[in-house]
Amino acid sequence: MALTRSPRWFAKGVADLANSPWPPTLRGRVWLASPRLISSPEPPTFGSSFGVLSKRAAAASSSSMAVSLRWSPGPRSLWDEPLAISVHGLAPAQPVTLRASFRDEKGELFQASARYQADAGGQLDLARAPALGGSYSGVEPMGLFWSMKPAKPYWRLVKRDVQTPFLVELEVYDGHDPQPTKVMAQVVHERGFLGPGVKRIPVREGSVRATLFLPPGSGPFPGIIDIFGAGGGLLEYRASLLAGHGFAVLALAYYAFEDLPKDMKELHLEYFEEAVQYLKNHSQVKGPGVGLLGFSKGGDLCLSMASHLKDITATVTLNGSMANVGSVLHYKGMTIPPLGSDPKRIKMTKDGFADIVDALNNPLEEPNRRSLIPVEKAESCFLFLVGLDDHNWKSEFYANEAAKLLQAHGKKKPKIICYPATGHYIEPPYFPVCPVSFHALVGTLVIWGGEVSAHSMAQIDAWKQLRAFFHKHLGKD
Q1: Which domain holds residue 315?
Q2: Is 395 a catalytic residue?
Q3: Taking 50 as the threshold, does the pLDDT of residue 168 lie above it?
């Protein structure tokens, strides 16, 4: 079932230079400088799930000493976990402003704020009280997280080191002033990516460069290979969070990492086959097959793996393609060329951003069919998660056409879930939405699509859907 939310206006998004899903070139725009590091302020005072006043808050007003913040389940949580947030000790019907903020690993600030009013007893529960404006409106218990925006334009949140948490500071201000100054209470909450008992194991086996995450317990566990888009490197945050839900997850790099190729002009499916066999044969992985999870370019790599390799049981793509994109793909003497594109079909928005959704050629027309992935050969079950406002490429079209190919060859109809007002970067829950970022291969800022509220709700639902799909088809006990 598609998740539907009312559209809301969103501000310009965030960027990460490392993620560029496909390679048409648009000349004339050059990224000139790396982001400037921002030094962190003095460490804030840490609170517990029942709240602690910081020195700054205590100094702000002696009358605020009775005000406290409460976080549940406690002073720390995983990034994909929902929280219960409440404020206690306010005056009856007191107007307050709540603000949440944190800095990423580059020192860049993310923040959100909302105006609230306490109830007749001086209590404020975000699960029941509507926000009266600010970064969002209405009853949104996690609104202070999913509505966060970067202070630096076009900056995308990426977690590189999953062994350290983000420190999220929540503040309560008196009144509804646009720039409130009177801090009544303040706590810091740790939002982590490596759950209790989850093991992180660097993998350097043969040519495979990856990190394996194992859940707590004796196992064996259902195994999943997690592959990101065309940005390169090794991203672990999705795999580490997924391992907390009972899966053995292999976060796989395929270029621009250690001794792997520096670019992705040519990829070899034998490398991915080696990764499949490594995971399948691991003593803590439950067979007989493994699952695949791929985003963007990683999505078409997963389709190619499922179509040509053995031991693939379940495949999930997040806004993937049905054609090989961005690189030549080799396998046992066979060569699949990348789908061509026409930069002339790139449109510029009134804000000066590139809209690249029409740039790729139609893979169903000759001579582009040479790039088409033969999904009809796959023995895997499929789940396609699609953002209907994806401006990177035509994800809905690719999912529907892949389904037609499978069914035309007698294969089971895949599950397709489409999310209205949802763009390209479908991340784990509560990640800030990335509607615009710099595309290193295109050479300019591009729009990815998505409306903040709807896209955020889609991320929550997609996370539930893919976990349920893998649990079902990988046979978790």
Answers
A1: 199-475
A2: no
A3: yes
